[in-house]
Amino acid sequence: MKDQAEELREIMKRKNAPGKQTKTAATKPDIKPVDKARIITVTSGKGGVGKTNLSVNMALAFARLGKKVVVMDADLGLANVNVMLNMIPKFNLYHVIKKQKTMREILVETEYGISIVAGASGFSQIANMGEKDRKDFIRELDTLSSADIIIIDTSAGVSSNVLDFIAAADDAVIITTPEPTAITDAYGIIKIIATEYDSLNMGLKLVVNRAKGAGQARNVADRMINIAGQFLNLKVDYLGFIYEDSAVQQAVLRQKPFMVVDPKCKASICVQHIVDRMDRNKPGESRGFGGMLRRLFGNKEEVNSV
Question: CA-CA distance, 256 to 253, in Å (whole number)?
Fold first, then answer.
């Protein structure tokens, strides 16, 4: 089996080949049946490891495969998906919860072929909703079900909201770096997941960011995966790595995705490789957005009745 480094070299050769035509974000996506969206949660044990950057650039990579993609900013404290895209949305989920706007009205299409739901600070108020308000809110969220991919950018750490999103997703991507503190915090969130949830096969996937090379990333991943399996009896899959790349910081300063600023840089090719791998290895049966809502709110009848 080819390792990621070898596959990346082949991808770079193909991308640099003259006359090679590839799909762009403007490619018209196939519309999936309602409620079959693939839910991908991206999370981390600590801030500053590249979680939001991965979420946004993964979305672009899926869009290049012809997918209809929505990124939901579920960071309760530092919602910054819109900042990374140099956008200032007028409305966010708070306005939906307050019934001032509908989900379709706050869903913002970007120039990059993806859509975003900004500033999910209102999620903290869901627990205090009455039954009717909760049903109305679920109905609004369910309008996102026509997307192929919904990427949820959570806050860093182990709040109950983060754990709920991880448990409800088809794929839970945990991102870390080779730094000891990042590894420790990433293992911490894996340990809490193992403690809080019965399922030992939750689709947990690990991405090592800012790696100097494939060997360093593999060493970090193997160490975490072995510890999780041996001491927590929890399955974690190694999804891939992203090179340390100066193009990433340059893109952040320009408030644009690095896959747009330099689609042939090492980090861009790594993310496309990760997304290509995910697209080839789809979950056996996606729960869809309705399934995620049922897991989040814990009432199947309530969700089905809206």
Answer: 8
How far is the C-alpha of 92 from the C-alpha of 69, rounded, in Å? 18
Lowest mean per-residue pLDDT among 75-84, 109-118, 227-236: 75-84
Provide the edge-to-edge strand list for the sheet that holds 171-176: 108-109, 115-117, 69-74, 149-154, 38-43, 171-176, 204-211, 236-243
pLDDT tens, position by position, 191-207 = 988 888 766 567 799 99
**CA-based nearest residue to 24, from 277, 270, 268, 260:** 260
Helix (H) or strand (E) holding 237: strand 236-243
The answer to whether 147 and 69 have CB atoms below 8 angstroms apart is: yes
Listed in sequence order, the residues at least 6 apart from 255 whose beta carbon sits closer than 8 Å to its beta carbon are 83, 84, 85, 86
Q: Residues in the chain, how many?
A: 306
Domains of the chain, each with CATH number or no CATH: 31-301 (3.40.50.300)
Cα separation of 204 and 221, whole Å? 12
Report the DSSP beta bridge partners of residue 108.
116
Cβ atoms of residues 234 and 224 within 8 Å: no
Identify whether the C-beta of residue 45 lies closer than 8 Å to the C-beta of residue 154: no
Share of the chain above pLDDT 70, in %: 74
Comparing C-alpha atoms, which of 245, 243, 242, 247 is closest to residue 262? Answer: 247
pLDDT digits (tens, 9 = 90+) for 6-36: 655 565 555 455 444 433 333 333 434 445 7
